[in-house]
Amino acid sequence: MSDTAGMPVLRARDLRKEYGRGEGRLFAVDGVDLDVAAGETVAVMGPSGCGKSTLLHLLGGLDRPSGGEVWLAGDRIDDLSERALARLRRTAIGFVFQSFHLMEELTAVENVELSALLAGRSPRTARRKAEELLERVGLADRARFLPSALSGGQRQRVAVARALINEPAVVLADEPTGNLDSAATLDVLRLFEDLHAAGQTLMIVTHDARIAATADRLMTMRDGVLVDETRLTGGTTGRLGALVGLED
Ligand SMILES: Nc1ncnc2c1ncn2[C@@H]1O[C@H](COP(=O)(O)OP(=O)(O)OP(=O)(O)O)[C@@H](O)[C@H]1O
């Protein structure tokens, strides 16, 4: 990686993604510029279909842009080879999805350590780090459970542990609480707040204003473009708890 002092962790310039041709052509992302600083939590909101997931996929190298540039930790990534991009996805970016995307036949600890093994860590190191992370997300006692024996909130916490295991420059979360009830939502939000407090750079796509309220910055998207940007005071669990209405 290049010298990253002062560089945003994530940068997009005139980022575009179009689908289809002719009459059916659709600009899912239509010229997005953004910078996310180290340690910042950014929330992205907007109506269904406005391009939020597409934007996140472009930023995380899950999808190729039709135009524009993506920079991660000082390096341009949109023009990398498939092989280099795959390595980057494994090591520099942590993804959290709405539907968790856990391997059903693997236990919680195996799901978490798999990412470290794929990134080339030794089995012993991968297991140790996976166990530490499960402890950090409050699931030390569920390490040997299969996903089917975990609640939605617990599954998402396993997914967050998995996203963190290779110490990514940024965690990209796409509707991380979209499948969760209020109590589980609060658990996952607390976890994101802990990550934020620990200096993890985070970008969270959400429909949930409570999540957005915990971010440093809220970006609003419409028809493939960022139409508004608001700097927030940054969330705390206490404020969040009050918002969710589940705490004193
Ligand atoms: N692979 C694809 N092929 C064609 N069109 C697509 C594809 N993926 C997304 N789109 C279209 O691009 C637009 C943006 O989709 P995207 O999933 O990014 O929106 P979103 O804001 O994340 O929506 P939601 O909030 O409902 O998840 C939509 O109109 C969608 O139908």
UniProtKB/TrEMBL annotation:
CDD domains: ABC_MJ0796_LolCDE_FtsE. Keywords: ATP-binding, Nucleotide-binding, Transport. One of its GO terms (molecular function) is ATP binding. The keyword Transferase does not apply. Residues 10-248 form the ABC transporter domain. Pfam families: ABC_tran. InterPro entries: AAA+_ATPase (IPR003593), ABC_transporter-like_ATP-bd (IPR003439), ABC_transporter-like_CS (IPR017871), ABC_transpr_LolD-like (IPR015854), MacB-like_ATP-bd (IPR017911), P-loop_NTPase (IPR027417). Gene3D superfamilies: P-loop containing nucleotide triphosphate hydrolases. Belongs to the ABC transporter superfamily. This is ABC transporter ATP-binding protein.
